[in-house]
Amino acid sequence: MWSTLKLPAIAVLCFVPWCSGIRESKRQENTSCSKYRTAAYYANWDIYQRKFFPKDLPVDQLTHVLYAFANINSITGQVFLSDLEADTSHECGEQTAVQTGAQLYGCLGQLYSIKKSGNLKVLLSIGGATYSQNFAGPASSEQGRNLFASSAVDLVKNLGLDGLDVNWEYPVDEVEAANLVSLLKETRKQLDQYSNSLRTKYHFELTFAAPAGPSKYRILDLAAMDQYLDFWNLMAYDYAGGWLVPKTTGHQANLFSAGDASTPFDTKSSVDYYTSHGVASNKIVLGMPIYGRSFTKTTGIGHSFGAVGNGTWEKGVYDYKSLPMDGSSEIYDEKLGASYSWDPTKQELISYDTVEVGRQKARWIKSSNLGGVMWWESSADKKGRDSLIENVVLELGDCIRHAANNVDFPDSSYDNVRNPLVTASIGSEYPLYCTYLATTFMAIFVIFNTFNTLMLNTFIIFNTFDTFNTFDTFNTFNTLILNTFDTFHTLILNTFTINTFDTFNRFNISNRVNIRFRNLGINYL
Asked: Which residue ranges traverse the bilayer (predicted)?
């Protein structure tokens, strides 16, 4: 026999893990020390030769994933996905079960599933080196800017994203720079309009991939752009490479200048320019490379070179995880905040950030009151103690900006983004629904169990024979309610089972609720 007083608690124990949904496991933002963003670019081509999927990202160490890249129609301005197979269809290293309705799979489907179980924000990066040539035309007209913004926002609401990253490399003159400001203004306006249409208002973020070269950033109207941006991703790398004339080896991501040919550019000068032209330092997110730039047929840093190395995937560029190469030694220049490897036999020099440089840059971020760190790009990192991402995050400490993301997309064209049951996220989108459901079950339990207990006590006190089997009748009702509970629970478990994006073992979490039931001494089968 159950005690009536136990019933509300039991119902709450059963429903809380479901109705609080994914939000129950989200990290709370440390409001006393919430400073640093940790953003990593994820490229949609990573799923092919690299075999690196969104589920391989170190999401516990990231606040943002910048998904690269969407394309732009150079005439109309419409923003569209650049690889539908990778973006919305590919299995991404998981078995894909057949489901009814329109389902978001691919990298973006996997990222949506991941972000529901934490505070990770996913932004769609538009442009990049390949597609940036398509910005200028649409940005020059009101019609082009409107379609750019509306189509980009459509992707946000359909794909379950938290914002947009504009990656225009680069406006070539003041006219294009002014058009960029207008483009950002229109995009910010339409993001806010979409937010206002939601049940719960959410601030969708807008960021910009910012140049670190003087000839590029001096063209931009930084103060005018800044009013529409949440933060700037400063691309503080590619200071040196095979394109240099004259052909002189150099550091590709150094913090400070040596005043000679080895440091044609430096990060501090770039940051100083931005902050002196209307950009708050805490909105600047410092970009770091997870790759190295190669120079061959050279005698050292700051000297001439004849060619570039073979690279990991392209000429002259090596993944960080393949460095240093056999036969090479690493040189760390703390004064410059830079490092490189050197192979005297092959006469090859590769400029890249080591763990020591990454940690030094993290300390500089803190001392300069910058807004965090960004990496290009995530697939090239090492695992474990040699990971650049992990070491920088550790150096930044516990002041990471884990602000809540958005999982409420009622207008999505995809069932598993729009429908919380399909996405196995009961309650995160519909908390009132779950509250009412739990309250109803609790009330029914209390009513039937109270009558059941009352009848039993009456029979015992008055030694009355239960001629009409009243006790058994109420007990049958109790059993019926419990079986309904169990059926509902089984439905949830089956939902988790068919959900191919059950990245965080929600099936096992829900199964533990059954165990919790039984540990409380409830035998309802």
From this structure: 430-451
CA-CA distance, 380 to 320, in Å (whole number)?
A: 6
Active-site annotation holds for 174 = no
Query: Which residues are CB-neighbours of 484 under 8 A, at least 6 positions away?
Result: none
Nearest CA to 104 out of 496, 444, 419 is that of 419
203 has a pLDDT exceeding 70: yes
Structure tokens of 380? Answer: 């090239």
Q: Indicate the residue type of 29.
A: E
What percent of the chain has a predicted confidence (pLDDT) above 70?
A: 72
Q: What are the φ and ψ backbone dihedral angles of 270, each rounded to 5 degrees?
A: -65, -50
Buried b (16+ CB within 10 A) or exposed e, 130-155: ebbebbbbbbbeeebbbbbbbbbbbb
Which pLDDT band, with edges at 50, 70 and 90, does 40 fall under?
very high
Q: What angle do CA 266, 268, 272 make, to 5 degrees?
A: 125
| Alpha helices, DSSP H, located in 49-141 | 84, 106-115, 128-131, 136-139
Question: Is 60 exceeded by the pLDDT of residue 519?
Answer: no
Which residue among 169, 330, 356, 395 is the active-site one?
A: 169
pLDDT of residue 231: 99
CA–CA separation, 8 and 298 (whole Å): 76
Q: SS3 for 376? A: strand
